[in-house]
Write a structure and sequence with these properties.
By secondary structure, the protein is mainly α. Helix content is 46%, strand content 7%. It contains 14 helices and seven strands. The strands form three sheets. Strands 1-2-3 form a three-stranded antiparallel β-sheet, with no helix packed on it. It has a two-stranded antiparallel ribbon with strand order 4-5. The longest helix has 21 residues. The protein is globular and about 60 Å long. The chain starts with 6 loop residues before the first helix and ends in a 5-residue tail after the last helix.
Length: 367
Amino acid sequence: MAQPDDSTSILNPSLAQQTEELIQNSRSSHTKLSYRSDWNDFVTWCQTRGDFALPASPVTVGQYLTYLALHRRLKASTIQRRMSSISQAHKMKGHPSPIGSEHVRSVWKGIKRNPHIMVKQEGKKPILIDDLRNMVAALEQKQGLNSLRDRALLLLGFSGAFRRSELVALNVEDIEETREGLVITIRHSKTDQEGRGRRIALPYGSRYETCPVRTYKLWLEKSNITSGPVFRRMDKAHRIYPEPLSDRAVARIVKMAAERAGLDATQYAGHSLRAGFATSAARGGASERAIMDQRDTEVCWSSAAISEKETCSATTQRRMSGCEAVRLKVTKSKNIFPTDESLKMLYLVPSRQRSSVNRKVYQPDGE
């Protein structure tokens, strides 16, 4: 049997173009933009020195990394991303990557181990429950739609452990309002480039002012948003524009709210919401598995895979500031909300108020 001739496919301009489009679609637009910017920076640096950028020698790449670390004082994470961009550019053109050479690897190790090279930065602080409440309270003192939008963004971002990119990508069509709260579909994320999607369930909170469900619904009501992006750009006159916020705007909102709450705004960023959820849940006794379910898997945090007859012993009888931690007891059914025995980690209250809390959490009309 004759073997298929690949030459006709290679010479087919239409097929070649379609293949290139698939390759381009293999990465998110944000990743492609970052790689392109990194690669252009490396090419410009090589041109000023008269060196070849493609293919680049290990010596050239090693000197470039030294330049980034010693002269431009970039973060280690930024330098590592530049290395990845250089490697990808070489592989896409069929050249071996210089990043894997012993020379470049030795330079990279030296950068990380040298205490005089300040390429590492302290991570931003997580927003803990008390911080969040203070930030929301500070925003409430500022009247207007901007304040309401920002409160809804903070509360959804924390309770859903959302990334900045996930928050700004939310559309009204992605959020289902149910009797128990909200079911949010994340269609794309950093760890889900193929768009398989995952669902996050957010129940009603025991405190009206920090309830993500009520604040979200109030934001939609006051803004008259019925479809499209949930969190949109606004001007000082409170005019709402159709385009969504940028991920950088989320960071600015977090910093602004932190400053209003009397916190050091430089210590907080957009990721502080997601980090704060994980930190608060861990301190409250939630298991690592339960936290990861909310952060990176296809099921919500409140529906960890525990059979109906089992209880999560790691999350029971734990105390945090006189409060009982979440007690997970759920099934593998379609209901992805906690049972009436569970409390959402964001809304921990003293155990003596437990009966009234259950009524408030799961009876939205009976406040």
